[in-house]
């Protein structure tokens, strides 16, 4: 019993350390890869406590490998848009200008019941109150309500860390050529921009050298 107690306390602090290294703070922030690694770590710890006669290294080494995998994938996803989309997917606009986007809901396998449940969880009574709703890659629904019953303009990302967001261009019926020309008129290049978004027919830009 003392060995089991010791291992339980030890792995408690090891898991805290692992998540500190991975930089995770909330369960809601976990992506698919993060969730898989979390489940594997939990299984390894459970097996180690159950098989207390085995060496701790049989658990510590796999946990260390999983942490390294997570850190490596997180780094690669920051550097590569393709890897980021492959691992996390992209946000889906479920409601736009108060209108349900059934096509995106079907692609995301997101039912009307799922939508209504998340609206209720945010104390929203009706879809009529929503101007924009975006389904994030972690499954959370980001909601923008009508302000004083007036239409606003949702800030749509055009460039993230030097990468053009083609789905936004498609949504606003613009082309890459249009965006590059707009950026060129400001004496900038796409690679120089950390974040740019489109709102009220204007492009707002944050340059990398301003960070």
Secondary-structure map with pairings?
Blueprint: H1 2-22, H2 32-50, H3 57-79, H4 81-88, E1 92-96, E2 99-100, H5 102-107, H6 112-121, E3 130-135, E4 141-145, E5 156-160, E6 163-164, H7 166-171, H8 176-185, E7 193-199, E8 202-207
Helix pairs in contact: 1-2, 1-3, 2-3, 3-4
Descriptive terms for the model:
4-stranded antiparallel β-sheet, 211 residues, alpha+beta, 8 strands
Short description:
This protein is 49% helix and 18% strand. The protein has helices at residues 2-22, 32-50, 57-79, 81-88, 102-107, 112-121, 166-171, 176-185, and strands at residues 92-96, 99-100, 130-135, 141-145, 156-160, 163-164, 193-199, 202-207.
How would you sum up this structure, described in words?
The chain is of the alpha+beta class. It contains eight helices and eight strands. The chain has helices spanning about 1-20, 30-50, 55-80, 80-90, 100-105, 110-120, 165-170, 175-185, and strands at about 90-95, 100, 130-135, 140-145, 155-160, 165, 195-200, 200-205. A four-stranded antiparallel beta sheet has the order 2-1-3-4. A four-stranded antiparallel beta sheet has the order 6-5-7-8. α3 (about 55-80) crosses α4 (about 80-90). It is extended and about 65 Å long. The mean pLDDT is about 80.
